[in-house]
Amino acid sequence: MADYGMNEAAKYTTAISSLALRLGAYVFLRWHFPPAILALLAVYIPSFIYNFVHTSPYEVVADELDIVAREPPAADEDAARRREVGEPEELDDGRELVVEETIVLEERDAQPLKTLLTGLPSPTSLLLSALTFTINLALVAMVCDLTWRGTFFHQSHDLSMARTGYVAETSARILVREPDARQYPIFVSYRYADPPYMGVAAGGAPHDSAWKSGGSINWLDNSTDFTGTFALNRLASDTRYQWVVSNNHTGYFTTAPRPGHTSERAGTVGKFTFLHTSCLKNDFPYNPFSHTLSNAGLKHLATAVQGIKAQFMLFLGDFIYIDVPRRHGSTAEDYRREYRQMYASPDWPAASRELPWIHTYDDHEFANDWDGNTTGIFAAANDPYQHYHISVNPPPARKGETYFSFTQGPATFFILDTRRYRSPNDATNGTDPVTGDATKTMLGRQQLSDLLDWLKRPEAPGVRWKIVVSSVPFTKNWWFGAQDTWRGYLGERQIILEAMWDVGLKGGTGVIVLSGDRHEFAATAFPPPPDGKEEIIGLGPIGIGSNPLSPILAPVTAGLRTRRKRWPLSATVHEFSASPLSMFYLPIRTYAESSTSEDYLSDVCIKYIPDGNSKFGAVSISSPPTSDQSILHYRLFVDGVETWSYTITTPPDVGGGGRAKDAIWG
Question: Shortest CA distance to 88 belongs to which of 97, 78, 98, 96?
């Protein structure tokens, strides 16, 4: 019985550890969550061996017991003698009762389905036992391959690359990396990429397509991870250029149209288009037969961008995942390796050759849900971000800061830094329950002030859209990981929302928010409250009238003048949150409308699309000459296919607001 109990326990141990290992491997390879794969393997192997050795290939199909009375040999001789002499036989003749057991064995079935599904050894098939054991070993090998192969075999120290960064109306920035000293000095040249006659069509002189020098870099070293930048200046607006660097890299870009104008180029006449997304991870979904640094999302982007003709890509963070699936270090070199591996992807050149990229960071450039400001690992993580991204980003909104703004064509942009200045992610929503004031900040005092000033700022004629770019969602409808989004900073969010509604109150200019981070897509509307907001506008005489409480209220409210500001519905702000470009999407649904008021839904779901390993949005702005309203058309691409679209317009160019009240009671 002891052996039987031990065998059964071993079977359960083998089956459970095998099933857990397989499930864990699937979860790890599909979502990168870190189950204890190696620990499960350490349990599985000895239990499998024990079961393999102690599992009989036969089973009992019949077990019969027969009881037989059998005389001992001496008794048989005595009985024979008595019969010979004629003596009577004794009643107790001394016979013995013998129990005979007959066991019928039959060879067990190979149980192929049970063996392959549970990981238990087959009773009779060595091949099936070896196969199910190999399946589990292969799964563990794939987990190890995903976790360590890229780190140890693709350090990418020899990476040679170049890409286009920020492109303005008359200038462009080029990033180059070259560790091979034999290539120094590095030269850049550029030329018109448009056909010569396009200049004539626009009313100018024919373009000169001869190559022009854009400067040189004499030396690069490890202080910048062998990166450097070129600045191309005195370019023509709304014109396509080609550049080439002497270490054998080339690319294209189109300069921005003049502020307040859209493109006049063939194929994009009357439009201004750009892309946005976030979250990028090589070798996902995992394929053991693909290159370790292959990137399915970049492949989708490279295919789609040919037909979109975008000005640039706004990439909203998580360009690297230093801590997924496993952190391999926290030094500056560890972070540099992650950037090199992304740029070393064989799919990167096609996705960036004709598409400039503008970057901001999010948490995984540091650590998951980073709220440590500039402490700890910040300096090490910020080192490659400065060299690879900030160096060719737009100029900062304020010197020394990592948030920035710029204006191109019909839109002006403010790209937020949502990590460097934020208060800790605690269990609150960042709002005082009594006063409604903000108790936490995501932006910090100076960045918030600069953002509010930018929202109030009058723009050049024809600039009809203000676009706020946030690495984390502005809506509070995402409940999973909510404290890391603006849902954890609702007090400060309300200040920003009211400033956005004020833009719509004046009319003529629309406001949208672009975000990422959630590995899902959602479009959300933020309509202003229908009853507006009570504001104190100054001091003055109070009208007492017939209010019976006036004698009591008068000492408190004397001289108080208020008004109720009412925003028009056309001031509604819209958010489009799209990610990932190449990463997992969550198996559960994490977005749902929520409201703190029974009669006012502040965050209205327009569309929610959670599925898809690759998502990016295309924003196209046009200003029809027959209308005083500008049109913004949004298209969502999921796994390379256009899946959904939506169109909004700027508010009518009219004033608005509410009347001032001379008394509380009126």
Answer: 78
